[in-house]
């Protein structure tokens, strides 16, 4: 082992006397190998210690034969130049540069950066001597030149260590040696102590465990062991340990019993596991919080703009409510118009008041006649091309039948009868319409009914368990023909079940409109709590925890998944802090209120299945498609003009093609899948630890063949890309106008025995508005949706990767990624063509908004389009 060599004072940036570039190191000093001090001055009479530095995280790099050639051509020590690219948390600040220089000259703490390479075939470790570096500033990072001296007989390096102690965190982007060997780091480095251990990263060239070079086998195993930890002792924010825990951090009983929440996971509350450092005062969550502060300039500006708009979205409505009154947001804005029956005038008045603040302009993507709720055609269109197009099902049994316990929740039979809808079926019987795939349903009865009584006991919350029947018209659109509103037996008035049909008079019209509002309220909670949070955020996190714990960074499957798991754990930690926690935004603005997470828990227990989360399987499960090999993608859609399914299958197919080529390249035979210890450990742990409460279910897919692996990976990637894009980035355009999609309701429908019934008959508009969230609640919710539906400036979209150097020596993989990139561009063009096709009435025509949620790319901000590589919100 060569003598230790420290790269002294790596972040003291000074002008180099020989060039205009900033210097990474002091140019008049040298490293004394016996005393391990860095000395200054030509005569070096005294030794001055260097200030503390940080642990530089080193990652894998592709090691090509060209390096060995360079080494063998030269005798003696070989000089190599490396470019080290870093980024500081306060990059570009002159004040920061001065501060670092002053601290470096006055600090009494010894430090430095040690770089070491490890041979691929031997366990011998050599330390590299680095001298005479310089730096150059670029737009968002700084690149430093470092000179290495290396023995020509060293051989091909397979891993690299870095040990550093520094007061400031920084982002190590990459290390490139002679432009041939590249270490793609992409890691934030936190300040560590003098006694901290070195970090090791492996060559970027992907290899299965059985193909690991001899000299790296032990390192590869040790690195994974360190990432798993032992579940003991205290953890520091700098610890890189991934572990599982239950959701025991949502409540805050210290604030009172209203803030107590049950633990989700284990026992009677089955739930996926979250990422945490167990037995720790400084949890992984704490480490994630610190990462949120590491935002570069463009992102800071974006976040600052979002915060400002969110503040305005709260302050302005409060001021308006104080001046005009809180009665409702229409009356508050233009009180005189409630007697003029001019909904257009009301919309105009809102626009005039709010057009200088787009956050509060909550009438986006809405028709003018929707002032009193969605018209029937738009109501039906949105279940196919809205923010929640994954709940609609083919009607298979009529009347619908509940699976709930009748001794607790009443008769299982629905109150819907054939006489309610037969006149609306264009001459068909109900059975004929079902046989011809003409009847569809939104069925929220069983998921909602167990919570209705508890929800309705909360002040300002009223709800039903709803069922809605739709008829498929000859034009390919869905027409609502019946709504069933159910209450538990304890709450029944004249009846616990109320059936509404399209209106024939004025009173029926307002009851119909109110019924649709309650359906939309049900739908909003299902979309947010189940289809968005549970099925994507919560259920996918265990697969990525297991990947970090069991797949080496050298593993080809880790490399494939890496951009898709970039943000999910950070996002979920953030959500537990302010969104899904007790009293958080989700509880504040959704009907189940403090029962929100229990609500999603029941769906996980009774309904969630990983084997049915892939798009084709989900469409078949809901009866929206049937297998048919004569159709594209092997599926025949039961509604041809189903924008979510049409566009989603384009993206699913592109992902599947990429994954198929990738998996078959590394696993040409099934035995390689079965013998891959890391791969099997990843999947087994995802199931048995990450989804421990459902681990015994018979429906979990096996992992024995390349085909099994392709299906599992395609499902995961689709869920966190295309599926998440629809659930998240359509929230503002489709949900910010409250009468179109109220997140909760404040009143039940009036019945003839109610004291308010006469008031309803006298002024149905006022009753309608008083049933919705208040003006301030509506405006605040719109502001939140706007912030949560936006893309950050550094968003990476499907088809984009910044780590292709990992496969520099594998042209087959590079070609597969290139084809995938071309596929995403073609998808964007095809969706644009469909959105302009007048035959597709669910996405084109008067009053129909184009369905753009699955267009792969987007600009920053709230754009209603774009499919990021990872869950970012």
Automatic annotation (TrEMBL):
Q: Name one GO molecular function term.
A: oxidoreductase activity, acting on single donors with incorporation of molecular oxygen, incorporation of two atoms of oxygen
* Keyword list, A-Z: Dioxygenase, Fatty acid biosynthesis, Fatty acid metabolism, Lipid biosynthesis, Lipid metabolism, Metal-binding, Oxidoreductase, Oxylipin biosynthesis
Q: Which GO terms describe its biological process?
A: fatty acid biosynthetic process; lipid oxidation; oxylipin biosynthetic process
- Which residue ranges does the record assign to the Lipoxygenase domain? 206-873
Q: What class of enzyme is it?
A: oxidoreductase
Q: In which pathway does it act?
A: Lipid metabolism; oxylipin biosynthesis
Q: What EC number(s) is this enzyme filed under?
A: 1.13.11.-
Q: Which domain of life is it from?
A: Eukaryota
Q: Which family does it belong to?
A: Belongs to the lipoxygenase family.
How is the quaternary structure described? Monomer.
In UniProt terms, what function does this protein have? Plant lipoxygenase may be involved in a number of diverse aspects of plant physiology including growth and development, pest resistance, and senescence or responses to wounding.
Under what name is this protein listed? Lipoxygenase
The organism is Sesamum angustifolium
